[in-house]
Design brief:
Layout: E1 2-3, E2 8-11, H1 17-26, E3 33-36, E4 56-63, H2 75-91, E5 96-98, E6 102-105, E7 108-119, E8 125-135, H3 144-147, H4 158-174, H5 182-191, E9 199-203, E10 208-216, E11 222-226, E12 229-233, E13 239-240
């Protein structure tokens, strides 16, 4: 465990950077950023397990949004856009974003994002904890279940490259405290939407639909073209079936 300054702390291995940061926040600690090289109990969206072996970068940052609570739902895709812009700039990549916030490179998953909001007893927002996981090394060890679906940045110098990325991520994520234009965010997201204008399948517990993926809406629902008719599907109910190319 290394303390970089009063705000940032780094672990070799930890259960979850989000969980550790929430523990610090509950103790009124000065730490607002937790970084790890490995997570043993990493979590993704909808309580999915997030495989987090050595060779990845796992970082959680606490911010205090300065806008209406109704706009919190956009924090996830705003974070994804910031990560895309950073990686495109540093490594000349063409990162795509899978509905809603998976980071995609060469049609495989490079990383993911988990947002957890902390409210006071009187239901006022205290912090938004933004967790980011990225695969950095070319020799990253992924379990058999995820190996075909995942990719890394194929970097070779972990220490130098992770510091470079961290130095970009921290100010970018802190800037997400500020107010923003919803339409600008949605337009930017649609420009890099993974599988846009291709035929996909959406599944839920009870339904299955196939059609051309068009865009997302301001309520974050996904538009599909089904038999020449546009229909919208909620992220809370549906997911893209088998999105990664083998």
């Amino acid at each position: 465990m290394d303390r970089i300054d009063n705000e940032i702390i780094v672990f070799e291995t930890i259960d979850s950077t989000n969980d550790q940061l929430k523990r610090y926040l509950s103790e009124n600690s000065n730490y607002k950023i937790v970084i790890a090289k490995e997570q043993t109990k990493g979590r993704g969206q909808k309580d999915n397990k997030f495989i987090s072996p050595p060779g990845g970068l796992y970082i959680s940052i606490a911010i205090k949004p300065k806008y209406d609570i109704e706009k919190l739902k956009y924090l996830s895709i705003r974070t994804a856009l910031e990560i895309k812009n950073i990686l495109d700039k540093l490594y000349n990549k063409n990162i795509k974003l899978k509905w809603l916030n998976d980071i995609i490179l060469d049609e495989k998953k490079l990383g993911g994002i988990l947002i957890e909001n902390i409210f006071s007893k009187d239901n006022k927002l205290e912090y938004s904890v933004i967790g980011i996981g990225l695969n950095l090394l070319n020799n990253i060890k992924l379990n058999e279940e995820l190996n075909d679906n995942c990719i890394s940045l194929s970097l070779t110098n972990y220490e130098n490259e992770s510091k470079k990325i961290i130095n970009e991520i921290i100010p970018a994520i802190k800037s997400l405290e500020n107010n923003f234009s919803i339409s600008d965010v949605i337009n930017s997201y649609n420009e890099c939407l993974y599988l846009k204008n291709t035929d996909i399948s959406l599944v839920s517990d009870n339904d299955f639909f196939s059609g051309k993926l068009l865009s997302i809406n301001e309520d974050l629902s996904l538009n599909l073209l089904l038999n020449e008719e546009k229909r919208s599907f909620s992220y809370n109910l549906y997911k893209i079936n088998n999105p990664y190319k083998k």
